[in-house]
TrEMBL record:
Topology of this chain in the membrane: Multi-pass membrane protein
Family: Belongs to the insect chemoreceptor superfamily. Heteromeric odorant receptor channel (TC 1.A.69) family.
Source superkingdom: Eukaryota
Alphabetically ordered keywords of this record: Cell membrane, Membrane, Olfaction, Receptor, Sensory transduction, Transducer, Transmembrane, Transmembrane helix
Protein name: Odorant receptor
Subcellular location(s) of the protein: Cell membrane
Amino acid sequence: MVVLEASARQTLGESGEPWDVLRRNVKVLRFGGVWRPASRSGWRPCLFPLYFASVCGSLLNIITLDMVRSWLLWGDMTAVTFALVSAMTNLNGVVKMVHCFRHHDTYSRLVSDLNGLVALQRRYCERNGALKAAFQRACRRAARLTVGCLAYMNVLGQMWCVVPLLSAEPPDARESALPLVSLPGLRSDNRAWYSFAYLVESHAVFYWNFASLGMDMFFASAMIHVTGQLNILNIRLAQLRREGSTEDQLQPSRSTLNGNNRPQERLAGDSATMYGELCECVKHHQAILRYLEFLESVMSPVALTQFLCSVVAVCVTLYQITFNPEGSGVIKCAMFLPIPALQMFVYCWCGHDIMEAGLSVSLAAYSCAWVGVGQRVTSALRVVMCRAQRPLQLTAGKVYPVNRDTFLSLINASYTFYTLLRQMRNR
């Protein structure tokens, strides 16, 4: 890892920003109050703890209000389940923020090691159009996923905040609607307290997008770039060949008649060149495997928390859409339902892509021009192929493998819990 960090610093010093592949995600987390400022001097590092406390405090305030509302309205299953989905969503954001705040150095190392991983294959990308296209494809995928999901959530968050203002309020209502938690006894007639509560909840909605969803996009972008590095490695392996290999297939038979051993010497030299390139590919493959182990150790508790909270959120939101008599509540729940499913799917989709790209290493090694090369080249290729047949599988808390099958099983679990809630209500 030390070698990767040194390589990253050298690469960024020579080429600048474009090779800092997670810079966009770091900016999002810094804006959301999760990531510490880059400089350690000045007023920003001093004010960062207050900024972090304001965002985290808003989310904790919503969780507290959800608990109070559940206690006051215990027995009203619609109100309690709505408070539960709000509390689980905000609790998920708090866990992510605290985890990043406590392990900031580890997260920073995660970024620098990924830059070092990219730096290892940078010179190959600059000389080869196919490799450069694979790297740019990974950058575009990460950028589109980050910008698209955050833009969608910000538009949805604004709609979430506007719906209470546009919905008609019954004259005999016990409380007025708020973006997240309606406080018993608080009506819009009390403008001072209602405005204060509305602004606090809107603040929580706005910053949850960058703190919680931004963390998901951070890990998803890291996984996309690891997949990109595996794809680059696969192209390099498939392009391995001896120099002049087509010509050398005929040369030995012609020269043997004249007793000339130069073609055999040339063949040995070309195989040595191919073996050297193969050794470089093996080293880069090992670096990717080490980075994946490090990525899993950091991401594993966050992904497990996300899966558990999302399963509960999907289950309870389905219940709200089915049995909530209020029109505004149904609209808000219908708008919110894709979010927990999206958060689970992003992890599973990116993790599955890593697994498929890792398995493709074996096929790429077999696709190179290995016919007629030396024994040490073929032996090294067999070792690479055998190692690549072990799936590169990330896990969530060492419990759930992060792949598409897990996503389907989590969705099925959410629907099972929803069915259980519906049966409990009918009884």
